[in-house]
Design a protein that fits this description.
The complex is a heterodimer of chains A (179) and B (299). By secondary structure, chain A is an all-alpha fold. In chain A, 51% of the residues lie in helices and 0% in strands. Chain A has helices spanning 16-23, 39-42, 45-49, 55-64, 67-71, 84-88, 95-108, 114-126, 134-142, 156-169, 171-174. The longest helix of chain A is centred in the middle third of the chain and has 14 residues, at 95-108. Chain B folds into 2 domains: 2-123, Glutathione S-transferase Yfyf (Class Pi), Chain A, domain 2; 140-293, Rossmann fold (3-Layer(aba) Sandwich), CATH 3.40.50. Chain B has helices at 11-15, 17-29, 46-52, 54-71, 80-95, 97-108, 123-131, 133-138, 173-179, 201-204, 206-222, 233-250, 261-268, 286-293, and strands at residues 2-7, 32-36, 75-77, 120-122, 147-150, 184-185, 227-230, 258-260. Chain B has a 4-stranded parallel sheet. Chain B is globular and about 55 Å long. Classes of the chains: A mainly alpha (179), B alpha/beta (299). Chains A and B meet through helix 3, helix 6, helix 7, helix 8 and helix 9 of A and helix 1, helix 2, helix 3, helix 4 and helix 6 of B.
Chain lengths: 179, 299
């Protein structure tokens, strides 16, 4: 959805509890203080390259209580979390912290990109989001280093701790591939 | 000699081992001994894993911090993303007792407890604040005569409420440390812009992520630099591996060398590009390697 798409929003469809839910999160309390000045979007590096990504609009939708539209928003995952907008906001709104909370709500509603499920599972299984491979084992040896780094890669007991944590928090199930 | 634990993260040890090796070498030369942080995991990456589930992110991040607490030393990272995760998690758990109790319940199941006794340090702010620019300058045996585009990246300086590293619009500490090696930090357009990798964007929308990297590299090249220097293996991968992907997707060829600050410092201390793994980048630029081989006396 871009700024130019005209669509009637019925107040009866809005979910005001959504905003309250977001604002409970530490760091997200100032969501309602956004007065739509667009300083965030004007300076956004992502918006320069992908104009459909509009952080001001996402925050406006949050303030209006547009839960479903926001959790399923095609550009919800475009923020690189550079924090430029958060630093510049004249109202002190923590845009990025708020966006991360909305993303968490999406994931916990079962809305997650397949590529993100894959990287989540990779981390849950190996303890690394980017695990070692043969090419880099070779590079390590060539540099006179151990083939495996001193991380969970080398210590199975440590990896088991990671496995146990993701089981306790339910992260392994939360992010598993959908059939 | 000062001691710190060395938090490796994922990309340095598993994609750019030269960064890991260079860091150990240069810190030892500066009188800082790095102890292995055995059994550490992914930080885990702040934009993605924190997005997915905050408690999992906090539990895994704090486990890494706790491993260093148990050694009784502050933790050092050479990655902006790891710094973002670990500083934010460490600060949140130091400040919020309820959150700390919730996370400690999970950590207790794996035999740990978060106590909030250490600081998380990034190599750039550690060098600036604790080692000092003058001492870095004194460690240089062979001035590095290069024109450099400094890439601060994002999570080294932002969110500033968790960092306190001065101006986020016009920071200078990284430039000062680059110039301490004898190099020149060159101003370029949108110097503080993001590389495009973070927040899960490189994973979910590679082409969009690469547009940000391409702009970054284009602007650095237009300023006539020899290389881009960063302090984050994820930015490093995005700008180095990214160039091979940009060539495939958009047809642009830059051959821009990407160097981590630890590697730059190593050059000035007299180590070769091969010892520092600079020649192991995915973008091959023989001309640049030949140029920096001459820094240590030209043998």
């Amino acid at each position: 959805m871009s700024d130019t798409d005209m669509k009637v929003i019925k107040t009866s469809d809005l979910d005001l509890a959504f905003r309250e839910e977001i604002m409970k999160e530490h760091g997200a309390e100032k969501l309602s203080m956004c007065f739509n000045c667009t300083g965030c979007t004007a300076g956004c590096t992502m918006a320069e390259h992908e104009p459909n990504y509009n952080i001001r609009q996402l925050l406006r939708m949050a303030n209006l209580g547009m839960r479903e539209e926001l959790l399923n928003h095609p550009y919800l995952w475009n923020c690189t979390t550079c924090y430029k907008c958060q630093e510049r906001c004249p109202q002190g709104v923590h845009n990025v912290d708020i966006l991360l909370k909305i993303r968490t709500m999406a994931v916990h509603s079962g809305i997650m990109l397949d590529k993100h499920r894959k990287v989540a599972q990779l981390m849950a299984n190996t303890g690394h989001a980017v695990p070692i491979n043969d090419d880099n084992k070779e590079k390590r040896k060539k540099l006179g280093m151990g083939e495996l780094p001193e991380t969970v890669h080398k210590y199975p007991d440590a990896l088991e701790e990671v496995h146990k944590i993701v089981r306790i928090t339910g992260f392994d199930k939360l992010t598993e591939a959908q059939s | 000699m000062s001691e710190l634990s060395f938090f490796l993260g994922c990309i340095a040890p598993n994609r750019y081992p030269g960064i890991e090796k260079a860091t150990k070498i240069v810190m030892e030369e500066l009188g800082v001994h790095l102890k292995e942080l055995k059994g550490a995991s992914c930080c885990p990456a702040p934009g993605v894993f924190r997005s997915f589930d905050k408690i999992t992110w906090l539990a895994l991040a704090s486990r890494n911090v706790v491993l260093s607490e148990e050694m009784g030393v502050d933790l050092l990272t050479v990655c902006n993303g790891c710094f973002g995760s670990l500083v934010d998690a460490n600060n949140q758990l130091k400040e919020d007792q309820d959150l700390r109790a919730e996370v400690n319940k999970i950590l207790a199941e794996v035999g740990h407890e978060f106590k909030g006794t250490i600081r998380v340090r990034h190599i750039m702010e550690y060098l600036y604040d604790d080692v000092g620019v003058e001492k870095v300058k004194e460690s240089i045996k062979y001035p590095v005569d290069l024109k450099i585009a400094v890439h601060y990246g994002c999570h080294l300086i932002k969110p500033s409420k968790e960092r306190h590293l001065g101006s986020i619009e016009n920071p200078t500490f990284f430039d000062e440390l680059v110039e301490a090696t004898g190099a020149t930090s060159v101003m370029y357009k949108d110097k503080n812009a993001c590389c495009g990798a973070g927040g899960g964007v490189r994973t979910s929308s590679l082409e969009t992520a690469l547009k940000l990297a391409r702009a970054k590299i284009e602007h650095a090249q237009a300023a006539g630099v020899d290389c881009i220097v960063d302090a984050c293996p994820f930015c490093h991968l995005q700008m180095d591996v990214g160039q091979t992907e940009i060539e495939k997707k958009f047809g642009d060829v830059f051959n821009m060398p990407i160097v981590h600050y630890s590697q730059l410092l190593g050059l000035g201390m007299g180590y070769t590009p091969q010892e520092l793994g600079i020649d192991m980048n995915y973008v091959k630029n023989d001309e640049f390697i030949a140029k920096i081989e001459k820094i240590g006396g030209g043998n």
